[in-house]
Each structure stands twice: as C-alpha cells, then as structure tokens.
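[step 3/7] fold_predict: job queued, chain A
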Amino acid sequence: MKPLSDFKPPQLGDLLAGLSVALIIMPQAIAYAELAGLSPVIGLAAAAFPAIVAAFFVSSPYLQTGPTAMTSLLTFATLSHLAPTQSANYIALAALLALLVGIIRIAIGRLGLGAVAYLISQPVLLGFSTGAAILIVASQLPSVFGYRSSAPHVILGAWDSLIHMGQWQLEGLILSLLAFALILGGRRFHALFPGVLVAVVLTSLYSYYRHFEGQTLGHIEAAWPQLQLIFPWEQIPNLILSAMVIAVIGFAEVAAIARSYATQERQIWDANREFISQGMANLAAAFCGAFPVGGSFSRSALNHLAGAKTRWSGAFTGFLTLGLLPLAPLLSSLPKSVLAAIIIASVLKLISIQALIKMWRYSHSQSVIAWVSFASCLLFSPRVDIAVIIGVSLSIAHHLRREQQLMCEHEIDSEGALHLKPKGVLWFGSSATLEKRYHELLAQYKDLKKVIFHFSGLGRIDLSAALLLERLKEDSEKSGIEVIFTEVPPMAKSWEKRIWDDDLPSAKI
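[step 4/7] structure written:
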C-alpha cells in the first residue's frame, strides 16, 4: 500500500482542527499516562509521534490517534503484576507492549484480516467497556477526595475513600468538581468549548498562586522523548496474549469512530488500512519509549467538528503537540484531583448499566455473556484482559452451541418416500444432529425405499458434512434405500461433482 498515494493537500480547517485537539491532548495524555502507571513525559510522547505517523496511513480523515483511557487501563492491567509502576523495567515493558501491538495490527491489516474487528460481539464489548469504565472511575476517586487507600482492590479502595469523609482534601475536591462542571457543562454549551483546557488552566493558576496543599503533578521535564531501541525481548511470552487483546479490543473504538464518520460523510472506510495505521502508530509509540495507543472518540469528534477535511489534521495535532512540549512544565502545579476529574469525565459515557439491563429483553443468553464479561472485569481487576478472554470464549462457545442445533423437518409423501428438510448450517459441529435424526427416522419407518434430502434450508455445507452425507447415502443404498440430494445451495454445488457424484469411495467418518 502506498500511504501517500491519496494524500490531499492540507486545508486551513485541518490546521485549526489540529490545534484544537492539540490544546486538549496534553492534559489528557498526562492523565492517561497516570492511568497506565507511567510518567507525564511518556504520555506526551504517546500523544505526539503516533499521531504524526498514523496520519500517513489512516483511512478516516477524522481519526485522532494517541493515548486513550481503554488502552491505558489495559496497559496497566498487563504490566502492573510484572514490574513496579514508573520503574525502568515497567517503562521498557510498556514500550515492548506497544511494539507487539503494532506488529500484530500491521499483520492483521497486511493479511487482509480486518474483519476481525467485527468478531468481538456487542454483548462482550458492552459488558467489558462498562466494567472497565467503572474500574477507571473507581481508581480515580481516591485522587478526587485526596485520600490514599491501602485496600487491595480498586473497588474497595474507592469505597474506602468514600467512607472516610473526615480525611477528604476539600480544596482538591472542589477543584475537581469545578473541572468536572467545565468539561461536561462546556459540552452542553457548545461542542467546541475547550472544557479540558479551561479547567486545566484555571486550576493550575489557582494551585500556583494560592499554594494548593493537595497533591499536584510536580516537576515535569520538558525533555524530548528518547529513541527506544533496546527492549526486554525475554518478556514477550508474558506480553503476547495481552498484546493480542489490546490489538483487537483497542481497535473496537477505532472501528466505531471510522465507520460512524464514513456513514455520515458517505466515504469508504478500509478496516485493513486502519489496522495498519494503528499498527504504525504503535510502532512509533514503542520507538519513542511510550505505551500502546489507539483512536480517541472524543478527540476525533472534536477534530470533525473543528473543521478537519483531510488526514493532515492528525499530523498537525502531532506536530503541534511536539511544539508545545516545552510548555509542559507549566502543568506541574496541576492538582491530581483535576487530572482524575478529566479521566472520569472521559469515560462516563462508557458506563451503560441501562443497556446491560435492556439486553435481557433482547436475548437471555447474550445478556448472560454481557453480564459475565462485566462481572469478570470487576472481579479480576487489574487483570481486565482476563475478562476479555472470558467474554470472547463464552461468546464463541455460545455461537458453536447454537450452530450445532439443526432443525430437521420431515414428511412422508403419498408414494411412501421420506422427505427430509434440514435447516441451518450443516458443518462438522452440527452434522451429528442430522445423522442422529436420520437414524431415528429409518428406525421409525422400516419399510422406506426412498429418501429425498431437501437442502434449500441450509446456508452452508462444509466438507465434513458433505462426506457424512455421502456415507449415509452409500450405507442406505446398501440396504435398498434410494437417496436423492436436491435443492443444493449454490455454495455447495461443488460437492455434487467432487463427492456425491464421484465414483471414488468416500471417507468413513
């Protein structure tokens, strides 16, 4: 693929949109780095270089790439049990994780497997995203209240901070509520209102001039990210499964963003190309010593509303963020309670308890999968990647169980012939159902001389099922029963010539 082949010239709207996003991505990047267990400067690196690289490959002109709440949580979930947060080993592991995510996404895109983005069922995504968002909110409540809990679980820590009202840092709490009001209220006032930026500037100034006594970000280096070329390769076995989870789950938000705008703008969206763009972005994150990145819904929406026209808007965001790096030390007085409010405000929309409850009305079985994914996320915290694996496994198991169920209608005509009409998908998992039903009918109608299989109700017949049908036909004809296959679906026509009409003996399965 030639990334520059359809690169349109930049427009003024791209520059203005890129600037709008750059002004809010700095505090967001610092907040998400904190969530991932990393320092602010690493968050800023993840906001700059990946956005520049992704812009040369993206399929959607509105997609803004960088740190996100979900990838940050998954990064923390993967690394927190392998090394102390913010340690040199932890930082190296984060970069290696980004490298693996990048390689996996590029491989998916280059192999044309972009449809994998659709393989995570909606119930799993709903349950996981709701559980993950609740965990993120719970993890930030101690910072909002200025109370550090020693509880072993994030939910218990949140509860611990809630019940110790006498130890709350009221000044920090008020500032976080102010930030929360500016962010959420600003969205209602106008979609382009820079609530995050206004909240950060006002609270930082207050903190600096009023000598805020609560926790602040502290010293932030205005250093350029260092090139990362040495990785702890021996840790790949400990990271590869989580990298696969992040590569696919983290792409769900990207796919939702791009598909939504492709529909609104009547544009073509290429999932394979987007996998490559996000893979390249993660390679950039790895080599600048950052952590896994993805597409941001809120920043992409701002990019679109601010007038972005081409993929240059994402590149401008990255370059402008790089240009603003020297200003990063100005955020050193930012209260951590405000940082927590920024994170909470960004994930509140992901909490969909009402949708989980409504899921029961749509499908009991799918509702169970959604709720198990949700509960697993809370139960196995911080290893939320385990919740994804459980949810996906349940979803696949349910699908296979459902596909094993094959309806087999039958009737006897006036000439005594049996008409068997299977409905569903006939594959190696459901063929046993057809064989069992066929034997039951043979035992019931012992004088049968003719059986006609009607396949119009089948969506697909795989090789194993085709060989089974051939064996049933041979065995029946040996006992004097004529077997006819009719109404064969188009995609199974080849079995007629290659198996059912073949003189060669069929496999005995």
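[step 5/7] annotate
Residues 503-509 have pLDDT under 50 and may be disordered.
DSSP finds 19 helices and seven strands in the chain.
exit 0
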